[in-house]
Amino acid sequence: MMYLLVAVLCVSGGYVSAQAPAFCKNAECPQFNTISSNQNYAIRQYGPLTWATTSFVGQWKSNILGQLFGRLFNYIQGNNTLGQVMPMTVPVLTRIESAGQAGTKYTMHFMIPASNSRNIPGPVDPNVSLMTTPPATYYIRSFGGYANGQKSMSELQTLVNSINNPQTYDDNFFMTATYDSPSVKTNRHNEVWLQKIA
Ligand SMILES: *[C@@H]1O[C@H](CO)[C@@H](O)[C@H](O)[C@H]1NC(C)=O
Ligand SMILES: *[C@@H]1O[C@H](CO)[C@@H](O)[C@H](O)[C@H]1NC(C)=O
User: Fold this and answer.
1) For residues 196 and 84, what is the distance between their CA atoms, to the nearest angstrom?
2) Which first-to-last residue range defines the signal peptide (predicted)?
3) Which of 59, 121, 141, 174 could form a disulfide with 159 if both were Cys (CB 3.0 to 4.6 A apart)?
């Protein structure tokens, strides 16, 4: 019990590459504890994490995710208050939620690398913000190949069906996690996340 508690409290920030899961390849990715897993999903616990984020609210357009990616990429490429270039981390996490009449809200996140966490460069683009997410537990379903919107929705539906208990997650939003650039052709890794609340 004590050991578990210590392990949980230690989860925060990113993995140094030697300990990272294989699907992070050579990129820094957030640390987590796997609470349990089955053939359909895993339950992972993440500590507080700091991200650069940018959002779009409206009706889906095919170039939206590319635009959001471009803003965050610009930020890590040195268009920030310190003129600092930061390494790309994984996953590219996108939170998707209803915005009522306005349509859908898409918020893309790039994790701030550990090496920049003591002095985080401020964004120059007014549409890019820094955000720290509190510790949270997620139901996570992994899948391969290229993750388009349709594929992600079908994997999300499989995750929902497998959990088979809507009381245990927040159904106001879901997240998609992408670990590979489009140029990676094989052994791709993607995830859909639902935040566990009970
Ligand atoms: C830096 O960001 C600002 C605000 O988004 C933008 O106007 C400018 O073109 C960017 N500069 C470069 C070099 O990308
Ligand atoms: C910032 O976001 C607003 C609302 O989505 C948009 O109208 C504006 O063009 C964006 N500005 C930049 C610099 O991308």
Assistant:
1) 36
2) 1-18
3) 141
